[in-house]
């Protein structure tokens, strides 16, 4: 019994010593992934699409569910700017996302946000996957009913 316990502790000691640590050069740690997402929100809010683009991979997969003008799956930052950001500006005046909480679990980041625009006051959840220091995947879980009700049609 004593030998079994000693063997188990010997085998577990290296894992425990490294628990919570990332390999040197690993850019997908919790703090790094969260910081990248926070920077993405800051650049989106400021309208700096060039800086926003630099935080995302060239083959970014950007998904918005529902049947709204900006809904769909878009590949690449330019497709997002053209098919999502431009449409948001048209249909929701004074659109604003305000992070309530941002939590990283490995390289996946979950963001709970306040979602506001003229006639819109709701909340949303976003999920990001960060790879090699850039956002590679984004999925929005929006309150599409509230968004539709507040939407200005052209």
Secondary structure layout:
Elements: H1 2-18, H2 30-46, H3 49-54, E1 56-64, E2 72-75, H4 77-91, E3 96-105, E4 108-117, E5 120-131, E6 134-141, H5 144-150
Parallel strand pairs: 1-6
Antiparallel strand pairs: 1-2, 3-4, 4-5, 5-6
* Mean pLDDT reading: 86
Class by SSE composition: alpha+beta
How many H/I helices? Answer: 5
Helix content: 40-55%
CATH architecture assignment name: Roll
Q: In sequence order, what are the helices and strands, one letter per element?
A: HHHEEHEEEEH
Number of self-contained structural domains: 1
**Major sheet summary line:** 6 strands, mixed
Q: State the strand order across the main sheet.
A: 2-1-6-5-4-3
CATH topology: Nuclear Transport Factor 2, Chain: A
- Overall CATH class: Alpha Beta
Number of strands: 6
* Distance, first to last CA: 76 Å
Question: Could you list some keywords that capture this structure?
Answer:
Nuclear Transport Factor 2, Chain: A, 154 residues, single chain, alpha+beta
């Amino acid at each position: 019994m004593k030998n079994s316990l000693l063997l188990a502790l010997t085998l577990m000691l290296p894992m425990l010593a490294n628990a919570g640590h990332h390999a040197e050069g690993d850019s997908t740690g919790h703090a790094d992934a969260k910081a990248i997402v926070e920077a993405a929100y800051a650049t989106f809010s400021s309208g700096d699409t060039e800086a926003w683009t630099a935080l995302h991979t060239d083959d970014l997969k950007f998904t918005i569910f529902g049947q709204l003008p900006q809904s769909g799956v878009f590949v690449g930052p330019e497709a997002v700017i053209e098919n999502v950001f431009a449409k948001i500006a048209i249909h929701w005046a004074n659109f604003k996302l305000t992070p309530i909480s941002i939590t990283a679990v490995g390289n996946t980041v979950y963001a709970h946000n306040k979602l506001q625009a003229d006639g819109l006051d709701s909340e949303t959840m976003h999920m990001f996957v960060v790879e090699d220091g850039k956002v590679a995947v984004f999925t929005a879980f929006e309150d599409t009913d509230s968004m539709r009700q507040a939407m200005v049609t052209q």
